[in-house]
Amino acid sequence: MTANKLFFSDGLPAGLEEYSFILIFNASGLLVKKIENGSSLANYKEIKAGLKNISPPFAAHFLGREKGASYYCFQADDNFKITGTEFEFRDLRSLINCLDETQFRFACLAAQVLYWDKTTKFCGECGALTRHSPSERAKICTGCARVFYPAVTPAIIVAVMNQGKMLLAHNKNFAEGVYSLIAGFVEPGESLEDCVAREVLEETGVSVSDVKYFKSQPWPFPSSMMIGFTASYKSGDIKPDGEEIIHAAWFGREELPKLPRPGSLSRNIIDIMMSDIN
Ligand SMILES: [Zn+2]
132, 150, 168 — which closes off a domain? Predict the structure, then answer.
């Protein structure tokens, strides 16, 4: 991704090209175009007519440039209309496997940038208005000059292994019958490894050892970073906490329950770890 100093423009940015992608979010999600076997972001040429209906000022953020195309995003209100049956607003989660990897990555970035913009209109310290920095993706308080960068909230997710079986749990917020890995937010003052051990113990009563980093995934709902780990069972019997986790058990490769949809880090770790079992 090429860095560029234009991070914010009060209206349609100068230099917008016909093939620049414009990521428009409203209360229902992201504007995409239906294509064969999936969805695509919409470019400026395709939505130019619709953009004329927007009353300025609106804040268009420059996200970056990759493979010759620039990416911009902005938040639309309910008055934004676009003609053409090929366009629809879709919940970002539902687009995980519908957009190509680059487009989905920019969609995640856009969601986080817009969330940050919406939630940092005022300084949390002195209450004055903030303004966008002209030189970086940051907002500066007009009263006390405090700087606000987009915040990312770290969360861990862990595959605990025990003699070829994996600890999977049903969370009360999951769809019926779906099981996934143990996950939770990192607390202040805690290392990622400590967080893994604490979450597994709190939610299932199991102690772990041998905590190892696996891989990560930005998770813009609204601003998380999922950090994946593997760990080994050390001791304890499974006792779900009954608050978040309703049921948890050890599952072998041949007896897996309903899993999270492909594309999520949890599913990715489950698939890779299970395929490694002999
Ligand atoms: Zn301030």
Answer: 150
* CATH code of 187's domain: 3.90.79.10
C-alpha 138 – ligand 1 centre gap (Å): 14
What's the domain count of the chain?
3
Q: Can you tell me the ipTM of this complex?
A: 0.99
Rounded Cα distance between 140 and 152, Å, is: 18
Segment 167-192, tens digit of pLDDT: 999 999 999 999 999 999 999 999 99
pLDDT digits (tens, 9 = 90+) for 221-242: 999 999 999 999 999 999 999 9
Q: How far apart are CA 18 and CA 116, in angstroms?
A: 27
**Full domain range(s) for residue 204:** 153-275
CA of 112 to the centre of ligand 1 (A): 22
